[in-house]
Amino acid sequence: MKMKRFLAVFHARNLEFMRDRAALGWNLLFPVLLVFGFAFLYSDSSKDLYKVGIYNNVAKGKQAVSGALEKGFLNTRYIQFIPVTNLDSAIEKVDHHKLDLLLDPAGAGRYWINSTSPKGYIVERILWGADKSKSETMVKQVLSGREIRYVDWVMPGILAMNMMFGSLFGVGFVIVRYRKNGVLKRLKATPLTALEFLGAQVCSRLLLTITVAVFVYFGTDFFINFIMLGSYGTLLLVYLLGGLSLISLALILAARTESEEFAGGVLNLIVWPMMIFSGVWFSLDGLHPAAQNFAQLLPLTHLVNAARAVMNDGAGLTDILPQLITLAGMSVVFMIIGACLFKWK
Q: What are the sequence ranges of the domains in the chain?
């Protein structure tokens, strides 16, 4: 590989993107509008509905619950009682204000509450008033943690989704257009090799998508103040590997396709399943097991899960190592397939 030829193509592709004002504006404006839209839609804090997790209530049955609790607190209006079976996961939800209180009525007589949650304070008072005798023997577990808003939860998915669009359409569609317009045929007559050309396309698009993601994140963070519990370096590594896997996936499509219409259809066929099954807009916990297994085959799923774990849960490199290895492995496989299938005309 000659670095001079590589850098020439790399520079040319960057200039082409920067001069396309419509594409540049859409890549910057679209995720910003989504972030501010969700921040506005979910900014209403005047809801009168409380959420209380009931641990082991389903597994052990209501007969294990005291009559006072069943007739009193568990029968309180305007409180949503949610059965939970995973104690650690439920405690984490209390810590992040996703549950106002967690109650173990059939077990050791414990309940968990976040000391910074106004709703949790009110629900605890309701619990005490509903069953005074029971509340005196229950063990209070105090947690603390900043509330994770929906906009905090969805932000990693928005960045990943914008990166997906930029990677798939910015590489796959562009190379197909080059082939249709005869650009690749002319480049074949030059000393430029396929490795240099594809490498320049990948590096250029990766640089642009990461730059846009950084701009969108810090530009909106100035106004919304996102939760960031992990390391920015770890988050950058996640998006680098995620972007590389998505760009590599685009190379497979661009390897031999000659029709822009066919390429657009295939890209939409790839994009929409990832939009639905990758956890961008909603959690995958409630999906059918077959759908959850299918989601693990999509690179966007691992990108969103890893980024969300870093931002919302403070995960480190060891915590998200399976997702990083998966993204790196997918990148290698996609690149090899794309390089083997690539043709100039």
A: 3-41+149-341, 50-143
Q: Is residue 84 within a helix (H) or strand (E), and if so which, with residue range?
A: strand 79-84
Beta carbons of 103 and 55 less than 8 angstroms apart = yes
Strand, helix or coil at 50?
strand
* Nearest one of 112, 102, 103, 116 to 140, comparing CA atoms: 112
Distance in angstroms (rounded) separating the CA atoms of residues 314 and 307: 10
CA-based torsion, 80, 82, 88, 92: positive or negative: negative
- Helices 321-341 and 299-313: angle between axes, nearest 10 degrees: 150
- Give the tens place of pLDDT for each residue, 215-264: 888 988 888 888 888 899 999 999 999 999 998 888 888 777 777 777 77
In this prediction the pTM is: 0.66
When pLDDT is cut at 50, 70 and 90, the band that residue 80 belongs to is confident
Residues sharing a CB contact under 8 Å with residue 232, sequence separation 6 or more, in sequence order? none
> For residue 300, is pLDDT > 80?
yes
Residue 60, pLDDT above cutoff 60 = no
CATH number belonging to domain 50-143: 3.40.190
Sheet strands side by side (includes 110-114): 79-84, 50-55, 101-104, 110-114, 139-143
* Partners of 54 in beta bridges: 83, 103
Query: Do the Cβ atoms of 79 and 130 come closer than 8 Å?
Result: no
Q: Kindly state the tokens that stand for 206.
A: 């990766």
DSSP helix/strand/coil, 283: coil
DSSP secondary structure, 169-227, as one string: IIIIIHHHHHHHHTHHHHHHTSS--HHHHHHHHHHHHHHHHHHHHHHHHHHHHHHH---
How far is the C-alpha of 25 from the C-alpha of 115, rounded, in Å?
44
Q: Which DSSP string corresponds to 4-51? A: HHHHHHHHHHHHHHHH-HHHHHHHHHHHHHHHHHHHHHT-------EE
The reported pLDDT for the residue numbered 219 is 86
